[in-house]
Specification:
233 residues; 4-stranded antiparallel beta sheet; Rossmann fold; 6-stranded mixed beta sheet; 7 helices; globular
Length: 233
């Protein structure tokens, strides 16, 4: 599903003539199988978010190769990457990233609009997903009228609306209380078992890492440990 070979990345910061090179990731080799729930853990600054941004094509690696669903994506153009992301990835964020001026329904619908899906099909898909996450009666509410847990469930529905095979999640429980975290993790487990969706989750939360099939620990930009287990282990 996702394969990374010999990947390193560094940022160049500072003004021209006074640039400074900051290494972030070093010789990353990793493989994510279809249907895996993978937790990427590590301290702040270990390279977790950079790794997710590389996998999703928002930045290009300095060295190495990334393959997603059998396709080498390392050298895709920005336009090709935009199309590839729309077809293959769903995204979840700690801050939810909902558009304040759009209702829950409209936020979930947006990827379908960008994809050019017809109105009736959009309504059917969005309503089905809002029902799936328990928010049917909140379809016309704006993000500011929803609790944090409800906003995250809207973001889950939006991430799934195009039926992506892969969902990339950056600290998805970071803004939730313990009960809403429990509900979100249960929902991720159900979606993974029922639909085989692959989840790649950045987290510092031990409770989140504990339910993953595969935990990858980053330290100082390198993979220091990997552990595999079953969802119910």
């Amino acid at each position: 599903m996702i394969e990374i070979n010999g990947m390193s990345h560094q940022f160049v910061i500072g003004k021209k003539g006074k640039e400074r090179i900051v290494p972030v990731l070093h010789h990353i080799d990793m493989r994510v199988e279809q249907g895996d729930v993978v937790a990427i853990v590590g301290r702040s600054g270990s390279g977790k978010s950079t790794l997710l941004n590389l996998i999703s094509g928002y930045i290009r690696p300095t060295l190495g190769e990334i393959r997603v669903m059998g396709r080498t994506v390392t050298k895709l153009s920005e336009g090709e990457w935009a199309d590839f992301r729309l077809d293959h990835f769903g995204f979840m964020f700690q801050s939810f990233q909902l558009i304040p001026s759009m209702t829950a329904f409209e936020n979930v619908e947006l990827p379908l609009v960008l994809k050019g899906v017809g109105l009736e099909q959009r309504k059917k898909r969005v309503n089905a997903l809002l029902e799936r996450v328990g928010l049917t009666e909140y379809a016309s509410h704006y993000p500011g009228e929803l609790s944090g847990g409800q906003q995250q469930r809207v973001s889950v529905a939006r991430a799934l609306v195009l039926n992506p095979p892969i969902v990339l999640a950056d600290e998805p429980t970071g803004s939730l209380d313990s009960e809403n975290e429990r509900q979100l993790l249960a929902l991720i487990g159900e979606l993974n078992r029922e639909h085989g969706i692959t989840f790649l989750i950045i987290t510092h939360d031990e409770q989140v890492a504990a339910v993953a099939h595969h935990t990858i620990t980053l330290q100082d930009g390198q993979i220091r440990a990997q552990q595999k287990r079953g969802w119910n282990d």
